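Here comes an entry:

___
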Amino acid sequence: MAEKDLPDSAPGKYVPYHPNPYYSPEPLPVEPKLEISAQVHDLVSEAAYQIGRVDGISSTVDFAAVLYTSLIRIEAVESARIEGADVEYQDVEAYHTQNPSGDEDATVEKDLKEALNYEAALTYGLDRIESGEEITLSLIKKLHSMLLEDVRNDGDVVGDFRDHMVHLTSPRPGKRPFVPPTPEGLTPLMQSLESYIQMGGQYHPLVDAAIIHYYFETVHPFSDGNGRLGRLLIILYLAKNGYLESPYIYPSAYFNRNKIEYVERMRAVSEEGAWEEWLTFFLEGLRSQAETSYERTQQLRELQERYEKEYSGNTNTDKFAQQLLQYPYFTAPDLVDYLDVSRRTAYKIVDDLEADGLLEEVTGKERGKEYKAVEVFDILS
């Protein structure tokens, strides 16, 4: 689409550039101010209701800390997979079981490293927000460095804005690439984003999160990692604005299921000013993921209650079954530390629960066996 083809409602313009024109968005805030339709208002209310339900149920369960960590890891995996990484949730759990102290010398395959980096960056960002820190360009650059640690490509600029043009291939065959702004234009555009974030936006936080995400991805300030960082910023923004008391919702699974629409909705904003469609898509993602998190938490709570009923005795096996949701992936020696029991007792517990179908050995090895809680994993993944 040439520059002259863009309607007045488009929040930017194409600038001639060889071989394809680049897109230059207007700085934030969006002008003229968006008119939020009744349909979008309704979706905001529905998403807010679902998020509130998640916050409510999550605070009532004994395994809240494990749920929190598990959902962060699921988000990390889904965000990495959107970018083409071949990684599973179980891979992340296995890594942490094998490297409980976060051994930096451990050899990690690149796709898994991308997910681990996302988990570390998201956890770091949430900690900074909780400590009262603002979302600044400095924090964004720090998070970018964490995301690309040991997974950078040749020519990537890490921890700073890109110094070269990039071309984003369209998911639709035959459609020309989308070309974000020139390196020279990045700093003022990103400063307008920083200002918009720090002023608290102009709309409901869920709507502003959609605007911020669109804008970040359109500016595409880094040479790599923009998708991962942009999705991470959604969570940080909502947490910073007090909208997520406990961040149990993560959008990447929804975006991963709808990758083509995800990209095309944002491009339609740039070229057509199609904010209504983008906001609808984005808010439905938050609503559906919050609903999924609620259902998942409810299923885990029911599973916990069943284990407590079926294993109501005082044997070591009973005691561990009642705590199984807190230890969904482990080795038998881990139980020695968890339960303060002998190795022989730990192996008996494993044998008992494996025979009952609650546990499954996942390595297929004779030594260094690792176990997962089957029904817990079925719910989480």
The domain at 3-296 is CATH 1.10.3290.10 (Fic-like fold). Residues 169 and 177 are 5 Å apart (CA to CA). The first helix runs from residue 38 to 58.
